[in-house]
Amino acid sequence: MEHEGIVTGITPSHILVRILQQSACAGCHAASLCATAEQKEKIIEVKNDGTPVRTGDKVVVTLAAKSGYKALWLTAVLPLLLIVLSLVVTTWVGASELVTGLCALLVPVIYYILLYFYRDRLKKQFTFFLKKTFVS
């Protein structure tokens, strides 16, 4: 996973890079006419490994494929499995449809709240790398 960005700040421990996160259809020629095209600015912290960059430099921020798969697992696959598991368990114990549905809605809420509280620990597991782009 790679994103182009611009260095916005440099500290002894981190380099701050502003990237423009785009939805899949943002690159479409009709994106300016479409209400679903979405773009967000994000600031990514990259560990300062001595890469010679200055504020304003264009760079490429890279996340290892292994980390990308882990992020996909944590944010999409595991919550889906938990929802299905809650549906199966509540149906198996004989709960009403209302209780089953409410449990299926409550499980991902609790899961994402837990992820939020563990965000600092998870942040250490996802390492971004920086490559300077060279304009010829």
What key phrases describe this protein's structure?
single chain, elongated, transmembrane, alpha+beta, transmembrane helix, five-stranded antiparallel sheet, 5 strands, Positive regulator of sigma(E), RseC/MucC, membrane, SigmaE_reg_RseC_MucC, 3 helices, 136 residues
Please state the overall shape, judged from the principal axes of the Cα atoms: elongated
Instruction: Give me the side-by-side strand order of the main sheet.
Output: 3-2-1-4-5
| Whole-angstrom Rg | 20 Å
Q: What is the overall pLDDT average?
A: 82
Q: State the helicity in percent bands.
A: 25-40%
Distance N terminus to C terminus?
24 Å
Element order: H for helix, E for strand: EEEEHHHE
How many domains? The number is: 1
Uncertain runs are none
Helix/strand structural class: alpha+beta
Main sheet: strands, sense, barrel: 5 strands, antiparallel
Descriptive overview:
It is built from 3 helices and 5 strands. It is of the alpha+beta class and 136 residues long. The chain has one domain (2-132). A 5-stranded antiparallel beta sheet has the order 3-2-1-4-5. Helix 1 (65-92) runs antiparallel to helix 2. The radius of gyration is 20 Å and the shape is elongated. The model has no long low-confidence stretch (mean pLDDT 82).
